[in-house]
Amino acid sequence: MAKRIIVKVPDPILYKRCREVDVFDARLHSLLDDMKDTVKAANGAGLAAPQVAVLKRVCVVDTEDGYFELINPVLKSQSGEQTGAEGCLSVPKKYGTVTRPMKVTVLAQDRNGDMKKYKVHGFTARAFMHEMDHLDGIVYTSKATDITDGE
Ligand SMILES: [Zn+2]
């Protein structure tokens, strides 16, 4: 396991659509292990593969609700709304106000290719949606109603 370098805006890799994962091998596992090291070291709430320069539909979320590895995630349903502050490890020292669903149901494969269903709400739902947007080349700043400088 190793920390990887986090790609920052405006690197064009952050605006590309990622490819589906169809091979669940040791290479994928080492990517996931490295992403865990990287997000923990950066004290982030999540990290998507394009942020470490890998254009695959892989992301991780790390919140008080747990640590999640999402491969080929798909949003199945959503309800409610929340508006709040959001940041991104690829957009250092900035925060923005983004409206997201309050609750989401997401289907995703795990590192072995098994399909899982996740029902999450609140901040974890926000983190899921933020990371899944990265897989479609969407950085939250394009959805934020305002951007402010922060720590
Ligand atoms: Zn981000």
Give the CATH superfamily.
Answer: Peptide deformylase
- Would you tell me the structural class of the helices and strands? alpha+beta
Describe the strand arrangement of the main beta sheet, using strand numbers.
Answer: 1-2-3-6-7
Level-1 CATH class name: Alpha Beta
Written overview of the protein:
There is one protein chain. The chain is α+β, with helices and mostly antiparallel strands and 151 residues long. The chain has one domain: Peptide Deformylase, CATH 3.90.45.10. Helix content is 21%, strand content 38%. The chain is built from 2 helices and 8 strands. The chain has helices spanning 26-42, 122-135; strands at residues 46-48, 58-63, 66-79, 82-88, 91-100, 103-109, 115-121, 147-149. The strands form 2 sheets. Strands 1-2-3-6-7 form a 5-stranded antiparallel sheet, sandwiched between helices. A hairpin with a 2-residue loop joins strand 4 and strand 5. Zinc ion (ZN) is lined by residues 88-90, 130, 134.
Short structural description:
With 151 residues, the chain is an alpha+beta fold. It is 21% helix and 38% strand.
SSE inventory with pairings:
Blueprint: H1 26-42, E1 46-48, E2 58-63, E3 66-79, E4 82-88, E5 91-100, E6 103-109, E7 115-121, H2 122-135, E8 147-149
Antiparallel strand pairs: 1-2, 2-3, 3-6, 4-5, 5-8, 6-7
The structure holds zinc ion.
Summary keywords:
alpha+beta; Peptide Deformylase; three-stranded antiparallel β-sheet; 2 helices; 8 strands; globular; binds zinc ion
